[in-house]
Specification:
Strand content: 35-45%
Number of helices: 1
Strand order of the largest sheet: 3-4-5-6-7-8-9-10-11-12-13
Radius of gyration: 17 Å
Number of strands: 13
Distance between the termini: 52 Å
Oligomer: single chain
Length: about 180
């Protein structure tokens, strides 16, 4: 496999692209059930399918589902193990609306990115790679991070809130909401 191609795909992951389970019909629930990240439902019936074998091993690694020439979903297998690693969602006009990503290739969603006007609106993340939601990053209309709600113990309650100015990597304010 081309190392440059693999590097680009991994970079896309950490830049905030998309995960899902390995079924091609209808997917499971919503953003979070309890405090778990869960893949969004989608139905590919009636959509056109383009199958792509990226590494030329005779197996499909990418599926592009479209309606009337407009992409609706893209399902990617980045490590060529036959399981979905990224699922991208698009609206009826073909605008990118959501990504679900399995960062460690175990079939469990670790990152969900929601977009508005194709800019990140929020990123829900799991740091234990077990699908437990440990926080949500929020972004402004320009795609700049504004806040991170941390749930360090994954109990469903926000423990620490960090506030950010646009284009700054360090928070200007931190609220620790844990009982002391």
């Amino acid at each position: 496999m081309n190392k440059a191609f693999y590097f680009v795909l991994v970079a896309m992951i950490f830049a905030g692209t998309g995960c899902s389970k390995n079924s091609e019909d209808v997917k499971s629930a919503a953003d979070a059930v309890g405090n778990k990240l869960v893949a969004q439902d989608y139905d590919v019936s009636g959509l056109d399918l383009e199958s792509i074998d990226i590494n030329n091993d005779g197996k499909t690694d990418q599926r592009i589902y479209s309606k009337n020439g407009i992409v609706q979903y893209v399902v990617r297998d980045l490590n060529f193990d036959g399981k979905t690693d990224i699922t991208e969602f698009y609206d009826e006009a073909g605008r990118h609306t959501r990504d679900e990503i399995d960062l460690d290739y175990d079939g469990i969603c670790d990152l969900i990115v929601s977009y508005e006007d194709e800019k990140p609106l929020k990123k829900e993340f799991s740091v234990d790679f077990e699908g437990n939601r440990h926080g949500i990053q929020y972004f402004d209309a320009n795609g700049n991070r504004t806040k991170i709600d941390h749930d360090y113990d994954a109990d469903g309650n926000v423990d620490v809130v960090e506030y950010y100015h646009p284009n700054e990597s360090e928070p200007y304010k931190v609220d620790d909401l844990r009982k002391k």
